[in-house]
Amino acid sequence: MFSFKKLSNAILIFFFCLATNTSSFSQVADSSQNITNISSMLDSLVTLNHVVRFNCLDANCFNASMANTGVVPYFSDDEYISRMAKISCPIPLSYNRYVKDFIDLYAFRRRALTQRVMGLSNLYFPMYEEILDKEGLPLEFKYLSIIESALNPVAVSRVGATGLWQFMYSTGIVYGLKVNSFTDDRRDPIKSTYAACKYFKDMYSIYGDWLLVIASYNCGAGNVNKAIKRSGGKKNFWEIMQYLPAETRSYVPAFIAVTYVMNYSREHNLYPITPAYSYFQVDTINVSKQVNFNVLASQIDLPLDVISFLNPIYKKNYIPDTEESYALRLPTNKIALYMAKEEQIIALSIPPPKPVMPIALKVVKPDTVSADSSLTVQQIDSTNAVAQTVEVVKTQYKFVDKKVVKTHIVRKNESVNSVAALYKMSVAELKRINRLKTNSLLKGQRLTVNTTVKTKVPVENSSATVKQKTISNISTAIATDTSVKDSSVYASIVDGKTDSIAVNTVNTNSASPVVTPKYVYHLVQPGDTLWNIAKKYNGVTIEMIKNINNLRSTELKVGTKLKVLVSG
After folding, report:
1. Which of 272, 390, 406, 421 has its CA 20 to 30 A from that of 568?
2. Lowest-confidence range among 34-43, 181-190, 272-281, 459-468?
């Protein structure tokens, strides 16, 4: 006999199983996504290959009998549990399926990159251990930076966390890491390690549990506190794990897996691929003057990218000239050479003075100024300086729409309609350009879009008078050339554009021929002096070159461009 009660129970069981499977699939997807996020830091080491100059396998840890076979060993769960129990560590290390997933990542799927990380540990771990020991923290915290950055000092996460310890801007400021246009302390190995230690100690004073400290380093103390509250006040990571953000649920297992792999690397046939320099092959010098890394590279015969890698704190490839002293890290075999050439390096690092762009002038004799003109005739003062009224004329510009093609990276929850609306395109046009057959988009997908941008262009045959002012003592700029004093018109041609300014001159004699001076650029060659440069151009003096280019001395640097005023 058919029973509606049995049918309703069957339906309830079906939907319960469906919900359970959906939750399981969601957890698997989250786990896969989080493994992908962490492995992306390992992948960032690929871009460092040419910088770090990775050598062959480390001879100190090389086991030829296993490495030559190319064997990738696998072990049972019981073996993993037994080995973890033998690791002497104040941080509790547990083995479960979450930890196993990350052992597979570091020991199997990303073996080559793990060996690079092991090599880079020779550059950073001695410094980590010294600071962690000084601060009274477990030395195993050094493995945390492998998860954070894969020991890539210039790594930047998708949310902007930067450096070996992946500090966000706001957190870095709280812990004393300064960031400006030229330097970023988050990328300084020593400063960022001290800041991380301060954070570890602060969190341990709150939770008293190292795994919760590690969890808070990933998601923040606020999320850990919420998870503790939702769990009913429990303070064990594995008991509150389900209430933490998805990324943090993978973060702690990843730390345990890295700790295991680094302690049992030989058993997994993993051997360090060492970089060109280790911690004990690099030393530090205090620098209080500006140092250009391009100059430094040429003077001490060291590749620029290696200098940048050893000094990741400097964003612009030079040490700024400030009252604060900075640290410069160099290979120990280059220290003596740097000390011998320090003065020369600092001198060559000083940028040449920027040439002053003179105002384009049009000089008019007093007797040519009409009575209704807006210009006023001034008299020569007692110091023989020229006083004149100047009218500044500037070119007008307008903004026009210019069509450009751009690449759009699809963000979370974006659709074809929202992307098309963002760039003022039709959905049909967007799908046609990208050959889309459906309206569904994937996060991270690249789309080609057409859009318009505002472009500034000059208005042809137009100019606008923007200001009138009186300039005195202009004789230093133009009185050195006698042809200018006697001319009725003085036009300056700069970069193919002619702007003019009406000015009174000293000479009131009869009309003089029109002289059209112009500027040329002289590239300083070896052996050039201001004297022989002035001799090459008719009517040019040393003082004219110095005034136009704002030179304080007669010393010239090869390759400098000098602006020279020539007649004709």
Report:
1. 390
2. 459-468
Q: In this structure, what DSSP letter does residue 175 have? A: T
What confidence score (pLDDT) does residue 170 get? 92
Q: Are residues 236 and 342 in the same domain?
A: no
Q: Which helix (H) or strand (E) holds 547?
A: helix 542-549
pLDDT at residue 457 is higher than 50? yes
End-to-end CA distance of the chain: 115
Looking at residue 459, its amino acid is: V
Q: Tell which residue, 31, 417, 411, has the closest CA to residue 248.
A: 31
CATH code of the domain covering residue 510: 3.10.350.10
Cβ proximity of 479 and 501 under 8 Å: no
DSSP 494: E
CA distance 224 to 213: 9
Please state whether the predicted TM-score (pTM) of the whole model is above 0.70: no
pLDDT band at 468 (very low <50, low <70, confident <90, very high): very low
- The answer to whether position 167 is within a domain reads no
Helix (H, G, I), strand (E, B) or coil at 349: helix
305 with 51: CB under 8 angstroms? yes
Structural Rg of the chain based on CA atoms: 35
Structure tokens of 508? 């009131």
| Cβ burial 357-387 (10 Å sphere, 16+ → b, else e) | eebbbbbbbeeebeeeeebeebeeeeeeebb
Query: Looking at the chain, how many residues does it have?
Result: 568
Query: CB-based contacts of 369: which residues, under 8 Å, 6+ apart?
Result: 375, 377, 504
Which amino acid is located at 126 in the chain? P
Burial class (CB in 10 A: 0-12, 13-18, 19+), 428: exposed
CB 200 within 8 A of CB 217: yes
Q: What is the pLDDT of residues 430-444, one digit of tens each?
A: 888 888 888 888 888
Q: Is the pLDDT of residue 50 over 70?
A: no
Using an 8 Å Cβ cutoff, are 535 and 565 in contact?
Answer: no
The span from the CA of 275 to the CA of 273, in Å, is 7
Residue 209 and residue 113 share a domain: yes
The last residue of a domain, from among 268, 294, 322? 268
Q: Are residues 298 and 229 in the same domain?
A: no
Q: Within a 10 A sphere around the Cβ of 278, how many other Cβ atoms?
A: 17
In the predicted model, what is the mean pLDDT of the chain? 76
Q: Does some domain include residue 333?
A: yes
| pLDDT tens digits, one per residue of 340-350 | 999 999 999 98
Centroid of chain to Cα 187? 10
Cα 557 versus chain centre, distance: 30
330 shares a domain with 260: no
Question: Cα-flanking dihedrals φ and ψ of residue 296, to 5°?
Answer: -60, -45
**Residues 6 or more apart in contact with residue 205 via CB below 8 angstroms:** none
pLDDT digits (tens, 9 = 90+) for 386-409: 444 444 445 666 777 778 788 888
Instruction: Provide the pLDDT for residue 441.
Output: 87
Q: Quote the domain boundaries for residue 126.
A: 20-160+201-268
Whether residue 559 contacts residue 510, with contact meaning beta carbons closer than 8 Å, is answered with: no
pLDDT digits (tens, 9 = 90+) for 303-324: 998 999 999 999 999 999 888 8
